[in-house]
Amino acid sequence: MGFCYMAVKQSTFLFDVRGGINQHDKLHVIPDNQLRLAQNVEVRYGGLKKRAGYVKNPTTVMGTSRIGSLYWGRKTDAAKTAYLFGSEGTNVKFWDGSAWVTLINVGTAGTRWGYTIARGNIYMTSVNDGFFMWNFINPPGIDFVQTLYYEFVIAHVDRIWRVRERDNPSLSAITKVFTNYGAEHMWEIPSTEADQWITGIMKMHNQLHVFTKQDIIRVPGYGPSQWRRNLVDTQAGMWASRSLETFPDGFALYLGINDIYMYPGDIPTAVGRPHIQDILDDINMTYIENACAMKIADEYWLSYTSRSGGGTVNNRTIVINTSASPWAFNGPYTYGFEAATVRRDTTGEIAYFGSTSIGQVYQAKSGTSDDGAAIAIDVQTKSYMLNAVQRQELIDLAIFGEISEGSTVTVKYKIDFASSWTTLGVVGMSASGAHEGYRDDSTSTRTYIFHPIKFPDGTTGRFIQIQLTESSTNAISIHGIEIRHQDAAFRR
Fold first, then answer.
1. Strand locations in 285-402, DSSP E?
2. Whole domain around residue 442: which residue ranges?
3. 26 shares its domain with 37
């Protein structure tokens, strides 16, 4: 009596995971280009890589209190001078290239400020402190309206619109500021219910769009005689005012009560569920109004307070790649922000966000660490089918990727939907741990096939799920995994 073995087979995974994460479908029916979890990695065609980190920029702190708001804008003059503004504690400041300069120092601590630039001036509003203007010459500016206090401000059709008054959150005021400030027009969306209070404002398709927690109101027209209130009766309003971001393709994204919504100017559509339902369910609703977003290129970065992460400030970030078809979800990333802005000019984009504890501004997508701290990745694949008919005996597993000296990747697996992970081994991501190395050209990073890890004798199954974890300040790129297996032995 002996054993008979079939030919050795190879199964390759992770070469194309640009579909992002999928937390809805059963593990074995998730598409091959999607993952169950992609914590702190960017997914793409050709594998995945650890996300970039963040660095201090400017390195000088704004102050000792947490940052309440950030805004980057250009002066509307021939020079198009760029400025970075922010609020910290009781102050509103701007960065002059070497130091933070105070514009306003009479603010209420912790207040979130709104900003807009028009006709050579910047307009700043605070729901607690009033409405200010600075002409970029003589700080601290002019207090326009001392009796009315609004949370949001935007320039539209030669007017400054201020929205959500402190004592009447359904009130919006339109000030004709470009001709001796003009007369003030008061518009109100009548409601005594808290979920109809205004939560945000934006302009798109030459119209103004006003958000409440339930609905969206479109305001077309170029003057008081033309303005109309067109209600989009959606029941899918915006709950987090700083989650709103617009995209050049003619749509906006924002966070509602239970999902992320895509708004093209008429009817919003939920885009998060069911793909990232576990992440959405993890949002701590007590602090949903702290959620904050920024648009980097074609990506939507949404930061929120997670239940699993604990605490009372934003501590997780999910990224939606809107250029993928269909859209791909990355994350979560294990850091958060509650104030953000993006600088856009001929040199590209620089994304800034504020610390949730002190007055430090950071630059996102920069470096290989989080301000010196290690970035920990956790990648969990779908459950791949090796062979539906015949149980497979697993032989070994090899990783193909770019090296980072001193890094180690821990590999775990589940066979046939097991309830817990089994550790397979550790891959040393270094030249000494490589089986073979390749170089695409004379300047490219060297890419290696690392020495395979053997499965324990007698490991058999039809499905396998893989987990990869690593924590360091090094860059990691994984372009694929190969598993060798064969039909399980049978006696004859």
1. 292-296, 299-304, 316-321, 328-333, 340-345, 348-354, 361-363, 375-385, 392-402
2. 3-51+376-491
3. yes
